[in-house]
Amino acid sequence: MQIGIVGLGKMGGNMRERLRRAGHTVVGYDRNPELSDVGSLVDLVDKLEAPRHVWVMVPAGPATHTVIDQLASLLRHDDIVVDGGNSRWTDDERHARELAARGIGFVDAGVSGGVWGLQNGYALMVGGDPEHVDRLRPIFEALKPEGPYGFVHAGRVGAGHFAKMVHNGIEYAMMQAYAEGWELLENVESVDNVREVFRSWQQGTVIRSWLLDLAVDALDEDEHLERLRGYAEDSGEGRWTVEAALDHAVPLPAITASLFARFSSRQEDSPQMKMVAALRKQFGGHTVESAKEK
């Protein structure tokens, strides 16, 4: 199958490679000419055969809006745009409506996998009309992990990004729990090998997880996280999750508290946020601040 990808950063570039390894033809465009296969969006569209499929993998917000608006003027009836960034689900509804007026399909895809996706595959949560999702199924099958799980058609337009938003809200709370436990262990005199305590939890315990494995990796790199500043950004999904909970009167005390903990990290050098920052770097390649930058 043929597909275009706009945005070849940490995830988009690896997605291009994974699709090519699966035998698909991928034309990639990025503002960085060293990464790009073509010189412009116009060139990308011209390289694709109709009906065209273009996957947008750029930062949520204005950047995504701009790319989709440009594609709306370049694509034709029966083409499909996929937004694979971390867009807000309410933006999906507007994009789908505007593209539908031109006869262009729209699918929103929540993508999880970070910098490990090329090796392990990407979890995909997809929203859109069944006919559009079914046409793109070979692409989804190539990107997802091997086995029966890792892909879901979550519902209509917006459902994919809503599901990914909730996924990230849960991620906030899980990272916060590991971070709090780590800080408590670090502050008890009787425990003198916190890293190995974390490592011992990797087998046979109910709290074992990939996040725990990544925490151990981070502690192997910097046993007491002394090289990190206790600062962690929030990427937007945590806030949107709490806002959606308010709209639907659903109590989310753990996720809400973990979001507020991120805010506290901007006021002081929080030990817990050292662990959260380390985990974000491990699974997503997110930027961290060194202790010297404080």
Automatic annotation (TrEMBL):
Residues 160-294 form the 6-phosphogluconate dehydrogenase C-terminal domain. Gene3D superfamilies: N-(1-d-carboxylethyl)-l-norvaline Dehydrogenase, domain 2, NAD(P)-binding Rossmann-like Domain. GO terms for biological process: D-gluconate metabolic process; pentose-phosphate shunt. One of its GO terms (molecular function) is NADP binding. Pfam families: 6PGD (PF00393), NAD_binding_2 (PF03446). The keyword Transferase does not apply. InterPro entries: 6-PGluconate_DH-like_C_sf, 6DGDH_YqeC, 6PGD_dom2, 6PGDH_C, 6PGDH_NADP-bd, 6PGdom_BS, NAD(P)-bd_dom_sf, Pgluconate_DH. It comes from the Bacteria. Keywords: Gluconate utilization, Oxidoreductase. The keyword Lipid metabolism does not apply. Belongs to the 6-phosphogluconate dehydrogenase family. NCBIfam families: gnd_rel, PRK09599.1. This is 6-phosphogluconate dehydrogenase.
